[in-house]
Structure formats: structure tokens, C-alpha cells
Amino acid sequence: MRTFDALDDSGGGHCSPLQLKRRELTMPPTPNSSLYFDVLPRDAPKLQDCFSCTDTMIDLQSVPLSGGILVETIACSLDPYMRNRMRPVNEPGDMPAFPLGEVLNGFSVGVVIRSETTDFAAGQHVYGFMPYRKYNVFGACDGASVSTPMGTLKILANPYNLPWRYFVGILGMSGQTAYYGLKDVSDPKPGETIFVSAAAGAVGQVVVQLAKAMGLRVIASCGSIEKEKMLKKLGADHVINRHTSSISEELKKYGPIDIYFDNVGGATLEAAISSAAMNARFRIKIEALVVTDWHEKYAEEFYDVMQQKVASGEIKYREHVYCGLKHGGQGMADLMTGKNIGKAVIVLDGKWLS
Ligand SMILES: NC(=O)c1ccc[n+]([C@@H]2O[C@H](COP(=O)([O-])OP(=O)(O)OC[C@H]3O[C@@H](n4cnc5c(N)ncnc54)[C@H](OP(=O)(O)O)[C@@H]3O)[C@@H](O)[C@H]2O)c1
């Protein structure tokens, strides 16, 4: 059972009763869908059953902004780290748990449709942590221009006019992880061999292409024939299907490896360790904080370089798009079972797909 929250309040601030009446007549309230986290995965038969999507109503013209902004969400990211947030709130973890019965949150991109602060203007596009809800109000708060569930919103520049949803994928955390992780941690040299797991996923597909462009020999693993084909097209020198071949046997044949870009851990990591060349370098830290730690050093360069590479077609980008928040639960379940090909993303409305 959902109750109406502040966003559903169609009170009109300083409007006169006549103005309010006129607005009611001209602007009917708009449905505002939200993706809720309802059940812990251990208590649900399937991961998709842990979520529900519910519409409330919002008056976009008159919803109070309290000195902040009203943002229409364009796209919400689906990421593996979110699985760790689906735990009881009293269990500690790197990131706060998702409270049961509340709207999910995570990396999102949106467009400002009204603003009461000089820090943001209507029409600007913003990126950051937002509730997975079609329309969000971020009120003003002390010390920061607006208050979001975690951190601040970044105003995006899009010089090549790329689809805005890319900013939660190849131009967001996934691309940044690939770029920073390969460039900084992996320190690759032409001629070296890199092994990339979950290589057809959001991070992996970017690592494969950047590594090829740097002159590396790329071994890629994935979980389906379609992904194998995609990775061969992207230039991987050898592709391992983890369901039909033994990763350790294949690495014995095609290794040793100098760098392992680990996207999955577990048995694949063990197989990679046993195929390491002398002085191999592995990315074994898998946490969102790592990517944010590199922003100061590389974010500006990342946006310059990656936007240009994507716009020119030098780097290809494949997405697995779920259109509408109501498909978010299924998207999460697919991600955890490897059904996504490319970056898993929820696009809120078909109008953002062109
Ligand atoms: N360090 C950081 O700051 C940072 C930032 C972002 C992401 N990451 C990490 O990078 C990794 C990749 O993220 P992503 O967004 O690119 O996800 P993704 O690769 O798009 O999706 C996850 C993939 O993992 C594979 N997989 C799922 N279950 C598996 C299992 N039991 N064993 C082996 N493989 C399994 C599946 O691919 P196949 O079936 O094709 O193998 C699935 O498609 C994740 O571990 C994520 O947490 C780290």
C-alpha cells in the first residue's frame, strides 16, 4: 500500500485560489511512477518479485520545490553492486542497504524541468544518485544547492549530442570504471595479454575495446553464444564461453596473462590467478568507492576522451534497455543471471530512445 508523499502534494505555494483553479483546469496531474524495493531476495522466489512499480500523481506546475529543482528522470542504471544493498538495513555494508517499502535509488540521468535555485536552470541535464522515480523534487539544503539521497548532482555537458541515457553507462560509472581501471590500475603495455571477465557487460565491453586500441592481446569471457559473437566483432582475440568451456583450461592454452580485469570474482578469479604471468597485475577491488576515488584525477579527461570516441564510432556501445520502471525488477534479475548483453539500463520513456 503506497501513501502519497510530498511529491504528490499539488498545493500551489504563493498562487491565488483563482490561479490554482486555472492550473487545475489546464494541467491535470501527471502519473509519477516509482520502483519500490518490497522484499529481501532471500524471502522471494525470484529476484524480480522483490520489486514493484506504482504510480502516484504529481502536478508538475505547482509541486512545491522548497528552493530546489524538479527533475524528470531519463534513465536509471542497473548495476551489480545494487545486489549488496538488498539486505536488512541493520546489516553493515559498503553502501547503505535499501530499506524495504522505499523507492530504489542509484545512478540516474535526468533533465531539470523547473528550478528555484540559481545553481540549476530548466533544460539542464543532471547526473547523480536519484530515487528511481519518474519525477523527483530535490529541495535546497544547507551547504549544498540541492539535497539528493547521496551526494550532489552534476550538470552534464554533451558536446556531441549523444543520447542522454549514455551518461549512466559508457559515459557514467561503467565507462569510468573501465577507463580508470585499465589506464591507472592495469598500466597496460602494447603486446601484453589481458583477460577480461563478463566482457560483454557494461564495463567489460569498454575494457575490451580500449585494450585492443592500446595494442593488447585480449582474452574475453562471457556467458552466451550471442555475447561470444559480439566480443569477436569488438576485436577480442580469444573468447571463452563460461558455460561451455573451462576457463582455467582455456587460459592454460591461450595464457599466460599479464593483466586480469576482474568483473566477477569467484572461480574465474581463481582460474586467472593460476594463469598469471610473472609480474601480472589484477584488478581485484570491486567497489563503487574505487571509481569515485579516481574522479578528481581523471573525470575531465574521461568525459573529453570517451565522448569523442563514442561520437566518432571508435568505441561501440551496446545497451540492454528496459523501457519503463515497471521492467526494472526483471532487469535486475536478468543482470544477476547474465541475461543482459551490454549495459543494463532502465529508460523511463520511449521518447528517450532516439
Ligand atoms: N570498482 C568499481 O568502482 C566498480 C564500478 C562499476 C562496476 N564494478 C564491478 O564491475 C563488474 C561488472 O559490472 P557491470 O556493470 O559491467 O556488470 P555486467 O557485466 O553488465 O553484468 C554482470 C555480468 O556478470 C556475469 N555474471 C553474472 N553472474 C555470474 C556468475 N555467477 N559467475 C560469473 N559471471 C557472472 C554475467 O555475464 P556473463 O554471463 O556474460 O559472464 C553478467 O552479465 C561488477 O562486479 C561490478 O560490481 C566495479
Top keywords for this entry?
28% helix, disordered N terminus, ADH-like_C, binds NADP nicotinamide-adenine-dinucleotide phosphate, alpha/beta, 354 residues, Quinone Oxidoreductase, Chain A, domain 1, Rossmann fold, 5-stranded parallel sheet, 15 strands, 2 domains, single chain, 7-stranded mixed sheet
Summarize the structure.
Pfam families: ADH_N_2, ADH_zinc_N. This protein is 28% helix and 25% strand.
Element-level helix/strand string: HEEEHEEEEEHEHEHEHEHEHHEHE
Q: How many domains is the backbone divided into?
A: 2
| CATH structural class of the largest domain | Alpha Beta
Which ligands, by name, code or SMILES, are bound? NADP nicotinamide-adenine-dinucleotide phosphate
Tell me the total number of β-strands. 15
The outline comes out as globular
- For the record, the CATH architecture of the largest domain stands as Alpha-Beta Complex
- What is the straight-line distance between the termini? 35 Å
Uncertain segments are 1-13, 284-289
Helical segment count: 10
Q: Percent range for helical residues? A: 25-40%
CATH H-level homologous superfamily name of the largest domain: Medium-chain alcohol dehydrogenases, catalytic domain
